[in-house]
C-alpha cells in the first residue's frame, strides 16, 4: 500500500534535517577542538615570549640596577608587562625590587663553613661527576671553594696527578695524598673564602698548561661567565680558565643565572657548566646555543 501523499517526502525532509544538525554538531566539535588547540598554542607561545623577555631582563640586571622605564624602552614592552616580569623574578629569588625598578640580589659573602652546609647533596653529585672526567696523569687546577674541595676528596685512588690550587680547603684534603704532586700557588689569603689571590697566584697560571681546570662559582651567566665575590677572585678564575685545555665550572642549580655580586670572570668558549638535576627549564634555556655548554647530572 502506498503511503499517503507527502508522507515519504516529509520523512526524507525530517531525516535530512536530523542529518544536517548532526553534521553541524560534528563540524562545531571539530572547530572547538581546533580553537582549543589554537588557544593552547598561543598560550605556550606567550609563555615562551615572557620567559625570553625575563632572560633579557636578567642580562640587564647582571650589569646592575635597572629602571622599569628603561626596560620598557629596550624590550618594547608595556610598563604593566615589565612590572609583572620583575615580580616573577623577585619571587624566584633572582632579583630584588628597588624604587622604580629592580636590582640583582646583593648579599654579604658567606664563610666557607656556611657554604659547606648549603646544597650538600648537589655538591656530592657534582664532585662525583667531575671526578669521572679526570684521568691518571692529568694536571689539574682546582679553584678554591667547597664544591672543588669535595671534588678533591673524590680524587683518592687516581695515580700520577699534578694538582695546582689556590684553595686552602683543597690543600686540607690533599696534603697527605702520596701519589700526587700538589702545588699551592702563592698570593694573599682571603680568609672568608680561604683562597689565595692576587698577581702572584695569577702569574703561576702563565707558566703551566693544565689538562683541566675546575672552577667554582657564586653564579653563572651564559654571556658574562662566572659571578665572583671580588675583583681578585674574578682575575684568578679568568687566568686559570685561560691556561687550561679544558674548563669545567661546578655550579649547582641555585647558581644558574644568579648574580649575587658585581664581579664577573668571562669563560672561554666551549667551557662546560656542570649542574645538578634540580636545574629548572627556565634556568637551562639561556644556555642553549651559548658559548658555555650546560650539562645537568
UniProtKB/TrEMBL annotation:
Keyword Nucleotide-binding: no
InterPro entries referenced in this protein's UniProt entry, alphabetically: Carb_Metab_HTH_regulators, DeoR-like_C, DeoR_HTH, NagB/RpiA_transferase-like, Tscrpt_reg_HTH_DeoR_CS, WH-like_DNA-bd_sf, WH_DNA-bd_sf
Biased composition (Basic and acidic residues): 23-50
SUPFAM superfamilies per the UniProt record, alphabetical: NagB/RpiA/CoA transferase-like, Winged helix' DNA-binding domain
Disordered, as annotated region: 1-50
Domain HTH deoR-type: 49-104
Alphabetized UniProt keyword annotations: DNA-binding, Transcription, Transcription regulation
Highest taxon in the source lineage: Bacteria
GO molecular function: DNA binding; DNA-binding transcription factor activity
PANTHER family assigned: AGA OPERON TRANSCRIPTIONAL REPRESSOR-RELATED (PTHR30363:SF44), HTH-TYPE TRANSCRIPTIONAL REGULATOR SRLR-RELATED (PTHR30363)
Protein name: DeoR/GlpR transcriptional regulator
Organism: Egibacter rhizosphaerae
Taxon lineage: Bacteria, Bacillati, Actinomycetota, Nitriliruptoria, Egibacterales
Amino acid at each position: 500500500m502506498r503511503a499517503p501523499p507527502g508522507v515519504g517526502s516529509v520523512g526524507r525532509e525530517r531525516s535530512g534535517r536530523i542529518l544536517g544538525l548532526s553534521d553541524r554538531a560534528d563540524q562545531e566539535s571539530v572547530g572547538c577542538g581546533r580553537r582549543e588547540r589554537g588557544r593552547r598554542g598561543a598560550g605556550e607561545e606567550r609563555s615562551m615570549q615572557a620567559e625570553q623577555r625575563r632572560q633579557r631582563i636578567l642580562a640587564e640586571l647582571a650589569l646592575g640596577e635597572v629602571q622599569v622605564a628603561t626596560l620598557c624602552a629596550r624590550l618594547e614592552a608595556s610598563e604593566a608587562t615589565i612590572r609583572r616580569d620583575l615580580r616573577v623574578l623577585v619571587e624566584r629569588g633572582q632579583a630584588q625590587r628597588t624604587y622604580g625598578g629592580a636590582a640583582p640580589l646583593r648579599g654579604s659573602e658567606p664563610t666557607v663553613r656556611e657554604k659547606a652546609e648549603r646544597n650538600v647533596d648537589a655538591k656530592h653529585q657534582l664532585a662525583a661527576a667531575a671526578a669521572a672526567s679526570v684521568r691518571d696523569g692529568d694536571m689539574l687546577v682546582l679553584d678554591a671553594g667547597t664544591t672543588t674541595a669535595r671534588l678533591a676528596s673524590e680524587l683518592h685512588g687516581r695515580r700520577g696527578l699534578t694538582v695546582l690550587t689556590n684553595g686552602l680547603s683543597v690543600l686540607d684534603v690533599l696534603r697527605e695524598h702520596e701519589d700526587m704532586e700538589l702545588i699551592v700557588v702563592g698570593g694573599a689569603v682571603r680568609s672568608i673564602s680561604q683562597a689565595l689571590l692576587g698577581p702572584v697566584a695569577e702569574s703561576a697560571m702563565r707558566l703551566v698548561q693544565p689538562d683541566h681546570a675546575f672552577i667554582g662559582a657564586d653564579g653563572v651567566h651564559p654571556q658574562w661567565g662566572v659571578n665572583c665575590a671580588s675583583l681578585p677572585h674574578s682575575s684568578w678564575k679568568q687566568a686559570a680558565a685561560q691556561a687550561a685545555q679544558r674548563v669545567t665550572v661546578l655550579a649547582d642549580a641555585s647558581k644558574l643565572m644568579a648574580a649575587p655580586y658585581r664581579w664577573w670572570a668571562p669563560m672561554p668558549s666551549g667551557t662546560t657548566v656542570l649542574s645538578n638535576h634540580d636545574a629548572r627549564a627556565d634556568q637551562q634555556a639561556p644556555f642553549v646555543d651559548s658559548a658555555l655548554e650546560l650539562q645537568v647530572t
